[in-house]
Design a protein that fits this description.
- It contains one helix and eight strands, in the order αββββββββ.
- It is mainly beta.
- β7 and β8 form a beta hairpin.
Amino acid sequence: MIISAALSLFTLFVTGQIPPGMAHPISFKNETQIPVLLQVKSIFNGQLLRDRPYLIKPGETSPPIQIPGIKSVSISDAKSPRPLVQLPLPQSNEELQIAIVGTEKSMKLELRKPNN
């Protein structure tokens, strides 16, 4: 399923159906004390797109995630499939860097300025 979503997304880019610059990268920094599993999903042209899940250890940053559409994120404790946070992501015309902060019981996301 992930391969077919990635292939569909690649096809949209190649055929020019997604204007350049429409899908801006988002990266996440884990500022918690536990490793987390992160997955970004989006709705684009009526289809659900899912980026691959990323294991992010404390202090590490995800690679830039770049999928089009209205995005949301699901964050789980790496040791348990139970989601800790499921939130929509802000729409932006520029790169976003988001920090994952808090504890397992009260985790939240905070916008950070990209390191350019």
